[in-house]
Amino acid sequence: MARALINEPRILLADEPTGNLDSATGEEVARLLAELHRDGRTIVLVTHNESLASRAQRMIRLRDGRIESLERLA
After folding, report:
1. Is the whole-model pTM more than 0.70?
2. What is the pLDDT confidence band of residue 64, given thresholds at 50, 70 and 90?
3. What does the alpha-carbon distance between residue 27 and residue 25 come to, in Å, rounded to a whole number?
4. Phi, psi for 4 (deg, rounded to 5)
5. pLDDT over 90 at 69, yes or no
6. Sequence-separated (6 or more) residues with CB below 8 Å from residue 52
7. DSSP characters for 3-70?
């Protein structure tokens, strides 16, 4: 993540950022992403983790490469 943030991008693409992490470290990553968003960055997050996904403002669910649903959460 440090490499991705070094140039302070306005948009951050995060593909399974909590995959293969223990729950405490995954929570830390989730908090960091939330903080980055509060600071004005756009976060595009791809995850199978429903708990992490539920923290988003908007959720787009895909099935077989097609949009299955669009949902505004916050």
Report:
1. yes
2. very high
3. 5
4. -70, -25
5. yes
6. 18, 26, 30, 45
7. HHHTT--SEEEEESTTTT--HHHHHHHHHHHHHHHHTT-EEEEE-S-HHHHTTSSEEEEEETTEEEEE
